[in-house]
Predict the structure.
Amino acid sequence: MKVILKADMSNLGAAGDVVEVKAGYGRNYLIPQGLAYMASAANVKRVEEEKKLGEERSRRDYLEARRRASQLEGVSLTFRAHAGEEGRLFGSVTNADVADRLNEQGLDFEVDRRWVHLEEPIKALGEFRVPVQFGGDVSVEVEVRVERAE
C-alpha cells in the first residue's frame, strides 16, 4: 500500500514522501492517526500545494524576522541597579526585563521574553551582549549595560 506522509517519521521518511507500507500498518495506524494520506493523484496534488504554501509562509516569516532584527541593530539598553562592593547586584536583570525595556523603545512590534536568550540572569555590573532570536537563523545582539544606582 502506498501512502503520503504528513509528518516526518524516523523509520519511514520525511513529510510529503510517498512510501510503501504494509496494508494493515497504513490502514490501522498511519491514516487514523493523521500521519499519512492514501497515495492517490488528488492527495499527491494536495501535498504539493501544502508544501508550496509552507515554503511561502517560511519565506514570509524569514523576511518579517529580518525586518524586526534590523530595527534592533545597534540598540543599547542601560539598567541601573543596586550593587554591593564587588559589583554583585542585589537582584538580577532577566530576559523579561530586557524584553520590557526593548518594548519601551517604540518598536512597531512586541518583543517576547522568550526571544531574549540569556543563559542565566545578569547578576553583575558591566556590559553584556544579549542575543535576541527571531526564529530560525535570524538573531541580533543587543548591548546591555548594568550600572550602579545612586
